[in-house]
User: Fold this.
Amino acid sequence: MRGQLLDAAEAFTDGPVALPEILSGLVDDVDRALREELEIFPVCHHSPSSALAMVRRLREKQPKVIYLELCEDLRPLLGELRNCRLPVALQAFASDLDGFPPDWGPLSVVAPITEASAEYQAIAYALDTPGVELVLVDRSADHVFQWLPRDRPESASPDGEPAGPDGAGAAGSAPPPDEAGLHGDAVGVELGDLRPRFAELEAYLLHHGKVRHWSEWWDQYVEQPLAGADYDTYRQVMVLIGSLFRRLTPEGDDRLRQDEDRERYMWTRMREHLGASGADPAHCLYVCGAFHAASRVEEFGTAVPVSTDEAAPRSGDGSAPSSYEISPRTATRWLYGLIPSSHSAIEAQFGLASGSVSIAAATWRKALTRGALKPFQLDGQQGGRKRPGRKRSTSPAAPEPVTDRLSSFLASPPALDGLDEAELLEWCVDIVRLARRNGYLASTADAIAVFETAILLAGLRNRARPTPYDFADAAVTCIEKDVVPGRRDVRRLCEILLGGDRIGQVGYDSLPPLARDVFDRLAPLRLDLTKRTVQRALLDLGGDPELVPASDLLWVLRRLLPDGAVRPIMGERRLGERSIQESWDLALGRHQRSIIELGYEGITVEQVLELRLRRAVWAPDATAAGALAAVEDSILYLGGRRLADELGARAVELLAAERTVDDAPEVLRRIRRLLAHYRATRPDLPAWCEAFATSGYAHYCTLLPTAFADEETGVRQVGAMLGFLFSMESLALSLGCDRVQLELAVRQSHPEAPAKVALLWAAQFQLGLLPLAELRSRCAELLTNPLVVPAFPQYLSGFVQALEPVPALAPFVVELISTAFARLPDPVLLPWLPKLITTLREQARELVPVLVREAGRTFPGSLAEVDSWVPPWSTRQVTGVTPASPAAPAGPVADLLVAHPAVCDAVAELLGCDQGWLPAGRSGAGSPHPATAALLGRHPATTVAVADLLSDRNPVD
Assistant:
């Protein structure tokens, strides 16, 4: 084989270049792996051919020790797989970090297990066969995060490669979020990742293989040919592929460096176990990814025994000791358990094509039937059949000499299966039936078209028979057309047809104590909460008091679990209120992972909630508003006074330490609600409430002048501060605060923004520093100033915000808006109205109803009353008698104007005055108009100047 590859390299390259070295190295890697005394079993994750080869080899070799590439600290969980329905995932979880960046927490590592995987077959064989030892040799969960760079991206995989869609990504629709998200944001650990790390190579293979994504290429060119191959051929081909991908990895790749560290770790652990147990390597089996089977690290092999001391140097070939040392674990406390998984979750976790794991599972079942193989399965496994006991021979099969199987396998074309028309016809009929159920206008003609198109696509791609991927492409082409009228698209329907998205479940006995306690306490509901369907629970708390504890638990779960797990349809829980009847939609079966992860935090859900509330109020970014929310939650869900008083005392500390007022509206809303609750349920207020009132009064008085002047502080925040000061004033003064502090703060405030100016005027009015008459006068001056009128909506917004701290201003605000509508002309009012509406909507949305209610009390209730309605702020009285016009003043000016009326008429017409002439009086007999007399009295110089001017032009004796 080596000679053939070197001859081919020389013919293609015409000189000594890297290609001969690479091709020769491939054969060397295969030869090295096969010569190792400890048999290496190369696998690919979730590969049916790997699982089939594993079943055959285990029944033939019957090893006594199996070394498995899986996190070594997950070993105690493997026995719990008996109580689960696969697929599930082994999980290591840590929330209290020590030695890792705080922003990484919580840490989570998952290792999914499916029935059609080589690792599960090895686990089932080892656990159910007496005398067989299973040893996990990969790095621990703690080392997974130790080896990650400190500046890792959020979506980085444990090997440093960002997780993403497989290949062309567009192949297939995205799985439903609730199924694809079963692993959450955990880091995935898989057994045997085989994918080119040389982007150009992968693109080349996809292009010439006439496929769109890597999963389809692997299924066609590796899975199908190896499904029926013998063990030696399978083993040599997998090592060859692993060596090829390894040697084509770019130099300096961080992921390759981590892979080599993992290989050193695993070989070190295996040699330690061999030295401690005295096991014969010939009776052992090492199951690892094909990429690691072609390892070239110096620790490779078991030729030299090692000490059990972790720090002892080790060597790979006996010539020189290795300096590799396994670093100790951090002080992080790891918790372990099982969580449900699904095919779509595995695909999303490891960047596989949508539907590839389901197709692999269908291929596995079909190969078992075709080869008459009986897979290994744990006794008591949910969903499994009862199998008869296996007879185990007294001695394992003798090892056979290694022979070259690669030459014949690579030189001969693959055996092509003929077209299975019955299977393809069944697929076509079933996909049309599914399409009809999901709203597609599919018919028998579409089934025929799918059948013919699938055969055509297989021929174009040089395939003897259509694969599931060809069938899915044909169905999309012939049925989906250009729109998707149903809930699912056709590609998703093909995935369901070809095997579906199987979803695992963790059994009751394998759940943590908290999860079992939840299901036990919800047993009075008489529902099967393990189902993934949404179930409706009806609770008559008045007629059946036994359901009250279940109701309390449901409200706590609603606080802790994600949205959709526990959703109330009828009923609510607020301070001082309890529902008599409740209705819930429960989907705990879909959120089993979340319930299990709660079990990592405590024994009961109440303990978890208490821990979370404490953690929230003592966090570095905790705020007073958040602490008050924690107090409210503790009263609603936990009851008792001790925790609420402790959290309330922390709220006082946080409020005194805050230097901004961004959360002032939230603080005001929550403290008002809590004070109302305590006043209704207790004879006296808790000590922390009194301290909060006094501390808040002093705190906001201190920050008030700065908040008025700061441009970044909004009107809403300043209004909330004033609301706190005025609403808490009586309580604060009774506890020893001084009102002078508030008055000084208001006097020291000098805002420039119009809305804050209005707030300041309202505060001065509330304190008695600004009478209502003067406030009305200032607002009237604003309306008469044309430069201020465009900004008048901002003033109104400030006054509306002032309705919360100064509710007595509501009639005045109604008066102010009415006056503006009455005085402003249409050319000014019409462009001004949109700005007024948007300002009130953005800055005072919740206070506008208060204004509307006040307007409803002020204005008449019917249209007929409008004509006779008199505004309460108007001093005019409407009567039925028209008052007599005052007599015109006498004098030379009046006589002159009377003598020349045309001039006055022209000026009156220009000004729009139509009152007409007043009755003329005799000179010296009539009394002047009061307003005119007052005006002339205030400005005598003007009158004297006019008189002198008239005297010069008309001299008199």
Observations:
- The chain has a mean pLDDT of 78.
- The two ends are 144 Å apart (CA to CA).
- The longest strand covers residues 65-71.
- DSSP finds 39 helices and eleven strands in the chain.
